[in-house]
Amino acid sequence: MIQVRDLVFDYLGHRALHGVSVDIPKGTVIALVGPNGAGKSTLMRCMAGLDTPLSGSITVGGVDVQEHPREVHTKLGYLSDFFGLYQELTVQQCLSYAAAAQGIADKHIAKRVQDVARFLNLTDKLQSLASNLSRGQRQRVAIGQAIVHMPQVLLLDEPASGLDPEARADLSALFRTLQAKGMTLVVSSHILSELDEYCTHILSIRDGRVSRFASLAATATGAEGVIKTLVQIQLAAPAPQLAGLLGDYEVAHLDVQGLAPSTVYLPAGDLAARAVLLARLTAAGVAVCGFQEVRTTLQASYDQTGATGRPGESA
Ligand SMILES: Nc1ncnc2c1ncn2[C@@H]1O[C@H](COP(=O)(O)OP(=O)(O)OP(=O)(O)O)[C@@H](O)[C@H]1O
């Protein structure tokens, strides 16, 4: 969905990105992490077509960001780490303005604003001035402005900074919903545990270079390059029938006594295949008390880059 090739970016007298290359698949949620000054915001701004690299290229949905920025902007939403709202506008006006700026036809704007406000739980704030909103509400309006044109890709630079735990949890739920709608998200944050709740991949940047890009799920490549993920099945009671029920599947570990989880490979991202297996097990009377993808935590994956502590604290 986003293809970055050999990206080099210079600020005056300072190289911020040294040949960054990465392929971000459609429908993924990328945790963009790294120490202060690593180059995360610069990379996002280049992806959004707001900064021009010295060399290299970025395509979004196959469209070159530098050659066709306007076309890319129809596919992409971006929330800067220091976003601003027009204080003297109401929420409705903020969202309508963003919709018009994104080229949504006048006759569709009112409905689109209503839909986005409902989605972000802002309907009762539509007539409030932006200046009268709380930090969390302002954040939601800014996200609303970024998604009002229903982009395929959403870039969010430190979206949760300054939010209380409740607002952060709301934001996590919102990102999961956007992913379920098929959106590809790139989210930067220094709080790994928070990103862990919804991210599928880690993209770690250090000193302007990619130090790690990996799926957080335990994956393997099968025949003809098909990517498979490992799903673990935890039993609440022994189930001798489990071996027969998993006969058609690629089983990595089997424990019919349920002392340890059994693990099975399923096609990556195929939620329907997971649902079919779970239904098959429960229909056969297997007492399943846990059924989930085997994943590494973001912190563990980040630690493999050789970093210590929180990304914001590393040297
Ligand atoms: N406008 C600018 N002029 C000159 N140098 C800049 C500018 N903006 C950023 N830099 C430098 O470019 C490098 C990358 O900065 P960037 O903001 O992309 O890092 P970051 O990973 O987003 O950091 P943080 O986690 O602190 O937000 C840093 O060394 C920074 O000092």
UniProtKB/TrEMBL annotation:
<keyword id="KW-0472">Membrane</keyword>
<keyword id="KW-0813">Transport</keyword>
<dbReference type="Pfam" id="PF00005">
    <property type="entry name" value="ABC_tran"/>
</dbReference>
<dbReference type="InterPro" id="IPR003439">
    <property type="entry name" value="ABC_transporter-like_ATP-bd"/>
</dbReference>
<comment type="similarity">
    <text>Belongs to the ABC transporter superfamily.</text>
</comment>
<keyword id="KW-0547">Nucleotide-binding</keyword>
<dbReference type="GO" id="GO:0005524">
    <property type="term" value="F:ATP binding"/>
</dbReference>
<keyword id="KW-1003">Cell membrane</keyword>
<dbReference type="InterPro" id="IPR003593">
    <property type="entry name" value="AAA+_ATPase"/>
</dbReference>
<dbReference type="InterPro" id="IPR027417">
    <property type="entry name" value="P-loop_NTPase"/>
</dbReference>
<protein>
    <submittedName>
        <fullName>ABC transporter ATP-binding protein</fullName>
    </submittedName>
</protein>
<feature type="domain" description="ABC transporter">
    <location>
        <begin position="2"/>
        <end position="232"/>
    </location>
</feature>
<keyword id="KW-0067">ATP-binding</keyword>
